[in-house]
Design a protein that fits this description.
2 domains, Rossmann fold, binds nicotinamide-adenine-dinucleotide, alpha/beta, two-stranded antiparallel sheet, 7-stranded parallel β-sheet, 9 strands, about 270 residues
């Protein structure tokens, strides 16, 4: 079977088990662990008892050894996530911050560095789908607010985290965009517009900061039951396993099948993300 063999350096197939025992030339195995690394997650709470994308990412990162800073404008929501992190033996701090506000972002990152000493990773997860409406009926002021929360927030947190990553020789950022909207067209013009901007921001930042060792990627979840699946994708992209990956848009949506056939339903808390 193809899965049971690998190519060796001379291009010959070797059994998989044997390959694991051989010294691998070139690059050493890459770690999926974060031991002690500090990761900031925005929107680390969830609107309800669901496991939202930020909450899932935070729990999974902490379970891999990251020290996680849980930012949310709603402290109680972030505190629920902190309890889940602690339940799995992880380390986190909760910071109340509206990430659409420059001062809040600056103060939050300052506090993270004061408490944890560094910043390795950033998950720009906050996003809202309002205001609803087409170009004809959307409220222009609400539009500005939507762009601030969805897009400016990602620039702002990056602005304050990046100097710490660059000073440390590198880091990793994952922005949360979105996959295809509902069939028949999106109810909000703002949401797909903002999420497309997140992709542009990701690709431009990847090019601007790659030489400083900072990777910037985004995930594009689709469907209502992203949670753990998005969290796993975020954790992979943040990790050293993805160290040669930057500027990508990583779809998380089972190719449009939602849920994927045979997938278990997401329960309220599954720290292992199973
Ligand atoms: N849920 C989905 O079906 C889905 C699908 C595709 C993409 N996404 C994206 O995933 C991300 C998370 O969505 P979700 O539905 O998993 O999470 P959610 O909406 O349940 O929770 C996100 C958290 O963000 C916080 N928040 C909102 N505005 C904030 C602000 N200005 N400052 C700080 N915190 C703020 C909320 O208090 C909440 O706790 C968003 O970017 C969303 O667009 C979600």
């Amino acid at each position: 079977m193809v899965n049971d063999v690998l190519f060796n350096g001379a291009g010959r197939l070797i059994p998989h088990r044997m390959a694991e025992e051989l010294p691998m030339p070139g690059s050493p195995p890459r770690s999926a662990r974060f031991d002690g690394r500090v990761v900031v997650v925005s929107g680390a709470g969830s609107r309800d008892e669901r496991i939202g994308n930020g909450r899932a990412a935070a729990i999974l990162l902490a379970s891999a050894g990251a020290r996680v800073a849980l930012l949310d404008r709603d402290r109680d929501r972030a505190q629920s996530t902190a309890r889940m992190v602690a339940g799995g033996g992880g380390t986190s701090i909760v910071l109340e911050a509206d990430v659409s506000e420059p001062d809040c972002c600056e103060a939050a990152v300052k506090e993270v560095v004061a408490q944890f000493g560094s910043v390795y990773g950033l998950v720009n997860n906050v996003g809202i789908s309002s205001p609803p409406g087409t170009a004809v009926d959307v409220d222009p002021d609400e539009w500005d607010l939507g762009m601030r929360v969805n897009v400016k927030s990602m620039m702002l947190l990056s602005k304050y985290c990046l100097p710490h990553m660059i000073a440390a020789g590198g880091g990793s950022i994952v922005n949360v965009s979105s996959g295809a909207g509902p069939p028949g067209g999106p109810p909000s013009l703002l949401h797909p517009t903002a999420k497309a901007a997140v992709i542009g921001l990701t690709q431009a930042m990847a090019r601007q900061h790659g030489r400083s060792g900072v990777r910037v990627n985004c995930v594009a979840p689709a469907g209502e039951r992203g949670g753990w699946d998005t969290g796993h994708a975020v954790r992979f992209l943040l990790s050293d396993e993805a160290r040669w990956i930057t500027g990508v848009v990583f779809p998380v949506g089972a190719g449009g099948l939602s849920p994927p056939p045979g997938a278990p339903q997401d329960g309220p808390v599954q720290p292992d993300g199973a």
